[in-house]
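Support request, priority: normal
Reporter: lab tech (M.K.)
Component: structure prediction queue

Hi team, I submitted a job for Coproporphyrin III ferrochelatase from Zhihengliuella alba yesterday, and the status page still shows it as pending. I've pasted the exact input below so you can check whether something in the sequence is tripping the parser. The sequence length should be 406 residues. Please let me know if I need to resubmit or if it's stuck on your end.
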Amino acid sequence: MSRAENQTTEGLGYDAVLLASFGGPEGQDDVIPFLRNVTAGRGIPDERLEEVATHYRANGGVSPINEQNRDLLAALEAEIARRDWSLPLYWGNRNWDPYIPEALQQMYDDGHRRVLMLVTSAYAGYSSCCQYREDIAQAYEKTGLEGKIDVVKIRQFFYDRAFIAPFQEALAAGLEDVRAQLAAKGEPDAQPKVVFVTHSIPTAVADAQGPDHVKAEYGTDAYTAQHLAVARTLMETVPEAAGLEHSLVFQSRSGAPTTPWLEPDINDAIEEYAAAGTRGVVVMPIGFVSDHMEVKWDLDTEARDTAAELGLAFHRAPTPGTHAAFVGGLVDIVAEQLHGAGGQAPARGEQVVPGDWGDICCVTGCRPMLTARSGARRPVAESAPAPSDSAPSDSAPSAQAGPASR
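Reply from support: The job had stalled in the queue. We restarted it manually and it finished. Here are the results:
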């Protein structure tokens, strides 16, 4: 890639981008080692992990997420090349190869010293944001590179057009499909319900997350509030959705059944909607950026089967994936950080979800850090929560700490 005018490493302050994600197995032999990584420190025996592994076993032991990340990486590289930047991209995962410490070492060996970290989660929250900062802290410790290479996490982007535009298109298409299904069934006057869905998390974790002004405005925890704001924006900006009912539900609940998690579960909700007279649903997976295992299993298998048993028309909308607006918008957000570091007028991503969001990642439950400059130093207090709390907006297995609840 050639270097564009004013796009020098010195001027921009950063010289590489790390795409950070959850990771997933790529074959049957990888499944149990991967789940051991996810549940490290919990002492869960392999026999119980094998119960969790059924979703991966049914897919040949392969999680879709790694291939999706390769596709996203290639799309981002192409967009960066189109803009004539000299900004190499690397990829590192929390729980499977390529691992974040190895990516950090490779970036250092290649001569990079100031790195932006782009996480494959749109929302602020512990597992979708703060834990990635802890991953970098652990990578520093493993590689001995603390003080030698600086990693700065890019802000969350759920409120940007990059994330919203693909879902606007998907919602319009989903409504058209469900209405066609209803007409074919002789129910042309039936109105579909829009069901927004995201990964559930323990209610105690949700309640502990701020910031307070978001909790006060929405009357709920900040994690739920972010998703409610996205759902409201989509309903208000997609003409085809005017006048329709919508709801926010949850999926992929895991861990001990005695621990309260955010509800309702999507399958329970679909049953309630059918009992109340709903004849079709458009499922919008707004908690996710790609069609990984939880989308494929929890929505395309379990939720679809629930709807079919009840005779409901069903459509699951795609996630942003490598949609052109998503890819271009992510690069705009990278540019915002680059120009800000270079003292130039930032080319910001376009906020379309109303609200005073700012960069709320570091105030939604993160551990204290030794320095705010990198946002990625070793935590000085508290250990990470149990793995059952991890990656709710990323790509955790749908039963990280034990068999799925459904």
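The first helix runs from residue 9 to 12. The first strand starts at residue 16 and ends at 21. Let us know if anything else looks off. Ticket resolved.
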